[in-house]
Amino acid sequence: MTGDWVPGRRKTVLFVNDSLAMGGIETMIRDFALGLDPQRYAAAVAVFRPGGQLAEELLRAGMSVTSLDKRDGLDIGLVFRLRRHIREVGATVVHSHNYSAWFYCALASAGLRDVRLVHTEHSRVMPLARRRWLERWLSRVTRAVVAVSGDVARSLVHDIGVDRRRVGLIANGVNLTRFRPDDVARRAMRTALGIRDGAVVFGILARLVPVKSHKTLVEAFGQLRQRIPDAHLIIAGDGPCRAELERQIAEAGLGGHVHLLGEVRDGERVLNGLDVYVLSSVDEGMNLTLLEAMGTALPVIATAVGGNPEVVANGETGLTVPALQPAAMAEAMEKLARDRELRRAMGVRGRARVEGAFSQRRTLEEYMSLYDGDPVHAWQG
Questions:
Q1: What is the three-class DSSP state of 272?
Q2: Furthest-apart CA atoms within the chain: distance in Å
Q3: pLDDT band at 337, cuts 50/70/90?
Q4: How high is the pLDDT of residue 125?
């Protein structure tokens, strides 16, 4: 696929993902679709499964969102539906996210000489034999393969065997106008939850799924409250682990101090209500909300997995701890709870770090260069 690029021509970018349910990838797609320079690009979104809060937001903004209604298992018909949709919207760029979308986009765009396929891999890949072979093949028919972190790039190159010259690294970015410190939002959030001004509040915004290991965080918080009884924990997000998490909170007697908010639309308001952001995942590519928390000038505690150590400068912008170790997490939480000045200093440095290395504008500019036909800058790790 060579691509027929005409300087000055407005390009149509079609973003393709499994769904637009609330999540980091889906948030990135929404922000990209709305943030592209409208003089240079039109944007459209196609998903395999209908619905989702972010789909509603895009539709309200006048964006084209199409569900291709994927059937369970291998859906050959989806290839033809997606190929037809690529032609209908006049896509000159197809931007897929994670493996399933990559697979179908590669098949659907095969032979379309005026279509450029860009793929973003958001997490480390399972090194199964069939998966390795397929991802190597996919990389050879894709114009640009982008990893969101060095950890993901290493997985593609060393675990899967993708030619490192085909793998680029573009870190996720944050809208720093939206995610910033806001004292009014802070007071409103705490008042709404009945949290007194002097209490130290920890929190996480993440889907309630096993990989985020909320169970570890709640256990760590239970240990922390034995030492700091007035601490609070806010958990924003929804998912299949909610019932189990509710039982854990009730059995530990934490109900008055753990606030389960469910899925939220205004993450910036929740983040401003916190003193410390805590990420308890057992695996990550590059967690967007971790960056958003730092943009809000919060100190962060994160497990030392995946791309987290690439974001958090341990001891400078936050603390990193081993995964699945509640005692270590509780110790880090206590350290920050007891030192207000350390929290402030880490938050200031975290905001500066995001401004310098993880702004959404920088991320968008790097992707737009790929949309325009520039070659991917090979990962040098």
A1: helix
A2: 65
A3: very high
A4: 76
Q: Nearest-CA neighbor of 11 among 112, 97, 94, 113?
A: 94
Q: Measured between alpha carbons, how far is 369 from 377 in angstroms, rounded to an integer?
A: 10
Domain spanning 183-357, CATH architecture = 3-Layer(aba) Sandwich (3.40)
Q: Where are the domains of the chain?
A: 11-173+359-371, 183-357
* pTM: predicted TM-score of the whole model, two decimal places: 0.91
3 vs 40: CA distance, rounded Å: 17
Look at strands 144-147 and 93-97 and give their pairing.
Answer: unpaired
Domains 11-173+359-371 and 183-357 share a fold: yes
CATH architecture of 11-173+359-371: 3-Layer(aba) Sandwich (3.40)
pLDDT-derived band of residue 129, with 50, 70 and 90 as boundaries? confident
Q: What does residue 148 show for φ and ψ, rounded to 5 degrees?
A: -85, -10
The DSSP secondary structure of 52-110, one letter per residue, reads -HHHHHHHHTT-EEEE--PPSS--HHHHHHHHHHHHHHT-SEEEEEHHHHHHHHHHHHT
> Which tens digit of pLDDT belongs to each residue from 88-111?
999 999 999 989 999 999 999 999
Within 167-231, strands assigned E span 167-169, 201-205
